Amino acid sequence: MINEIEAARNAALAEIAALGDVEAVSTATARLTGKKSALSGLKKGLGALESIDDKKAAGQAINAALAAVNTALDDRRAELNAAALADRVEHERLDLTEFVAAPTRGHAHLVTQAWERLEDLFIGLGFQIAEGPEVETDWHNFEALNMGEGHPARGEFDTLFLDYAPPGGQPGSTLLRTHTSPVQIRTMLAGKPPIYIVAPGRVFRRDTADATHMPVFHQIEGLVVDRHITMADLAGTIEAFTKAFFGSEFTSRLRPYHFPFTEPSAEFDIQRPDGSWIELGGCGMVHPDVLRAGGIDPEEWSGFAFGFGIDRMAKERHGVDDLREMFSNDIRFLEQF
Ligand code: DAH
Fold first, then answer.
1. Which pLDDT value is given to residue 99?
2. Pocket of ligand 1 contains residue 146 by CB under 6 Å
3. How confident is the model at residue 156, as a pLDDT?
4. Is residue 231 located within the same domain as residue 148?
């Protein structure tokens, strides 16, 4: 009898261990502990036992077995409930980590980077930053820079004129500035020497985009007006800038050239470590007429000016083949700088 009880108990426990879900536990409860269960069935056999002690022992064994089965059922139910909950939590969970992680940050465009580095560098050399409008008058852009009406140099600037006539102005006398040089005039008119400024900005020309030209590009203008300023100050400034911007293995040279707003004028080139030269911009001693247009007496003051393309410099510094790449907004290109 005791062996049968033991066997029935073990069979029930094995069955319980194999139950797959809470519902199966409910149906198994009736089957394993109810009146028709194997263990309950064994109770009926108790009457057949002869000794009171045997009956008592067998009865206790059956009750103990039933209690064990009930405990096993409860445990299994709890186990399955916990697993079901864990499963649900896993399936319904919200991944909030993307809100917690720092968003990927972009960075300044390579032209902006060059622009800001140039500002820092010239501030370091003692210059201040000046600005002027992108929509300019013909007077500031040309006339005051010693390019009166009919001056052949005007033709070199493929100018975009505006129909807009400013108050008191002529139609066609307003334009998109073709260079940052008009900021020289505005700066001189706004203050008194000594003047040490650079003016970075956007300029416009009626050009078709190609590998080395864009209709909208960026220049940085420099203007120094003080007493006893000479061409040597200009050359020294250009050389200091070249080394600071490109590296100490670069040098610069001035090459005689002509600009209406400077006399004498030069173009300046920089030499790469491999010995090759590239042209960077124009410069010269500010023409007396330009000083006069800015309200400055050329007998008392002298100055130098320079201007060059920021985009071209960024292109050179980073070895970009085609200027158009820089304005294509292609993230794969931009990410590299
Ligand atoms: N404004 C000229 C250009 O756009 C560049 C330039 C040449 C600026 C000589 C200067 C200068 O200040 O002195 O081509």
1. 66
2. no
3. 86
4. yes
Is residue 184 classed as helix, strand or coil in its secondary structure? helix
Q: Are residues 303 and 165 in the same domain?
A: yes
Q: What is the pLDDT of residue 174?
A: 92
Domain of 162, CATH number, reads: 3.30.930.10
> Is the distance from the beta carbon of residue 282 to the nearest atom of ligand 1 less than 6 Å?
yes
**Which residue's C-alpha comes closest to atom 3 of ligand 1?**
179
pTM reported for the whole predicted model: 0.70
Give the CA dihedral 123, 241, 232, 249, nearest 10 degrees.
150
Query: Cα separation of 221 and 217, whole Å?
Result: 13
Q: What is the DSSP string of 281-321?
A: EEEEEEPHHHHHHTT--TTT-EEEEEEEEHHHHHHHHHT-S
Last residue of some domain: 62, 93, 124? 93
User: Number of structural domains, the chain?
Assistant: 2
Beta-carbon count within 10 A of 167 CB: 4
Residue spans of the chain under pLDDT 70: 98-101, 169, 171
124 located within any domain: yes
- The torsion angle over the Cα atoms of residues 14, 19, 24 and 30, rounded to 10 degrees, is 10
> How far apart, in whole angstroms, are the C-alpha atoms of residue 105 and residue 237?
36
181 C-alpha to center of ligand 1: Å?
6
